[in-house]
Amino acid sequence: MLPARPEAGLVLRYAFLWRREADRGQEEGAKDRPVVVVVLLAEGEEVVVAPITTKPPHAGELAVALPARVRAHLGLDAKQNWISLATLNRFVWPGPDLRAIPKRSPKTAIYGYIPQALLDDVRRMVMTELAKRVPGLVVKRSTE
Question: In the predicted model, is pLDDT for residue 144 greater than 80?
Answer without folding.
Answer: no
